[in-house]
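thought: user wants a sequence for this fold. calling inverse folding tool.
action: design(structure=
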């Protein structure tokens, strides 16, 4: 009996030793990171990536066992390209854009990717990890395994561990509002006209679009959900429109006695009410394939700085996988279309906001003098002309004293300053827009020089001060 027990224990120890040796060999091969990653056909849950990982090894079993580890490594450091066949699956940029990060944190990643390490929490296998393809390449095997990588959770882990920077800038991200693009509204007949100082102009009618398009609210909510998962504060279009309905357009606009108020469009008024930093304009359309039995979605979006109308991030038109028309679901198709482009899009928003935080937000300021103010902006106070006083104040209250060229009319009754770089917040930590920033100038002129003035705005990024009237 003792001999049987001894023999059993010896065999068990031998098996454990062989397994350990095989694992060490597998880890040694994996440390070279010899694999390829490509998009796989199928639908992954929101925040995940469905990929096929090709692992090279002299033994197929080793390649199978290391597929998940390689897939997570690829999502972090390599990404994968868009498919080149008819599936039109969009690729994905790596979570880490700096090539030196892996070496800088080599001890962290050595522990993260060790057998049984944290990496395994972020990967699951399709078909129990059984290879769907095996190819003999010389003396090696190229083994294909389809896996799902939990990209959003993986990114959060790397952010919390200090490996990559979170999107927030000094604890703050730009506030987002998602709206349909002008192209989409025009294409679907959701436009309105308004009188712009005697000329009729067309702009999107968001209220009409929400009332008449069953897809629009779904599309906006889909993007809102994704942005919320990234931590972006949101302004809801429908809720903002309801707020506006309680105010007339006349109440939302400041009109001066001399009729010199800046003409505001319905969009300008909406922006003033929402006070979102970024507007994301979305556009999409569907196309039928295979005699109408399948549907494919093409989706795009652009992010505009709400203060300047400058495009700060873009996602070019990308197409989803084709699905049978009877199973078409807009949120799933949108996820399929944007899965590889969403991270770079968010990173562009982050970069833009970092630039604003460092260099100030650009606005435009115009100062006019009412005809009853005799010498206009050339009126002297303590041997200094008024336009000089205003320019000195602007320099003191912009980020690093930055502002554009001052354009003063020959008559001295009008001055314009572009690219006035105002801080994101005032000394009390309150958010600033063009109006709240210029309000301090208005107070200074009244308190120090007894000058009355009228303040009006256009949207969030243009402000006008009329000297000599209230």
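)
observation: tool returned 470 residues.
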């Amino acid at each position: 009996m003792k001999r049987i027990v001894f023999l059993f224990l010896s065999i068990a120890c031998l098996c454990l030793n062989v397994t350990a040796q095989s694992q060490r060999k597998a880890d040694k091969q994996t440390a070279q990171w010899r694999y390829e990653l490509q998009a796989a056909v199928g639908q992954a849950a929101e925040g995940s990536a469905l990929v096929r990982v090709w692992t090279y090894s002299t033994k197929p079993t080793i390649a199978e066992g290391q597929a998940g580890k390689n897939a997570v490594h690829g999502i972090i450091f390599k990404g994968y390209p868009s498919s080149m066949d008819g599936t039109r699956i969009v690729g994905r940029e790596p979570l880490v854009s700096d090539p030196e990060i892996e070496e800088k944190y080599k001890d962290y990643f050595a522990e993260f990717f060790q057998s049984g390490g944290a990496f395994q929490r972020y990967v699951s296998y399709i078909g129990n990890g059984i290879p769907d393809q095996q190819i003999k390449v010389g003396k090696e095997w190229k083994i294909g395994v389809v896996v799902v990588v939990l990209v959003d959770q993986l990114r959060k882990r790397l952010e919390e561990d200090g490996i990559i920077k979170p999107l927030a800038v000094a604890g703050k991200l730009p506030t987002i509002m998602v709206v349909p693009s002008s192209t989409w509204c025009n294409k679907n007949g959701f436009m309105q006209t308004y009188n712009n100082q005697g000329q009729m102009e067309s702009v999107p009618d968001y209220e009409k679009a929400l009332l008449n398009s069953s897809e629009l609210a779904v599309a906006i909510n889909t993007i809102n959900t994704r942005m919320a998962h990234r931590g972006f504060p949101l302004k809801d279009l429908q809720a903002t429109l309801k707020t506006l309905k309680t105010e007339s357009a006349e109440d939302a606009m400041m009109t001066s006695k001399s009729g010199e108020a800046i003409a505001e469009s319905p969009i300008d008024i909406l922006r003033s009410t929402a006070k979102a930093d970024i507007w994301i304009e979305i556009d999409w359309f569907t196309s039928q394939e295979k005699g109408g039995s399948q549907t494919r979605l093409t989706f795009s979006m652009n992010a505009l700085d709400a203060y300047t109308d400058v495009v700060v991030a873009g996602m070019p038109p990308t197409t989803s996988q084709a699905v049978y028309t009877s199973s078409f679901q807009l949120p799933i198709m949108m996820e399929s279309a944007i899965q590889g482009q969403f991270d770079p899009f968010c990173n562009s928003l982050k970069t833009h906001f970092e630039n604003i935080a460092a260099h100030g937000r650009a606005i435009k300021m115009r100062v006019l003098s009412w005809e009853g103010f005799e010498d206009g902006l050339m009126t002297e106070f303590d041997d200094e002309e008024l336009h000089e006083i205003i320019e000195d104040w602007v320099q003191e209250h912009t980020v690093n004293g930055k502002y554009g060229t001052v354009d003063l009319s020959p008559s001295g009754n009008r001055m314009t300053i572009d690219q006035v770089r105002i801080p994101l917040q005032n000394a009390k930590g309150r958010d600033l827009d063009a109006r709240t920033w210029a309000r301090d100038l208005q107070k200074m002129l009244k308190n120090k020089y007894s000058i009355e003035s009228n303040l009006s705005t256009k949207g969030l990024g243009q402000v006008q001060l009329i000297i000599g009237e209230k």
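thought: summarizing for user.
answer: Here is the designed sequence. Confidence is low (pLDDT under 50) at residues 248-259.
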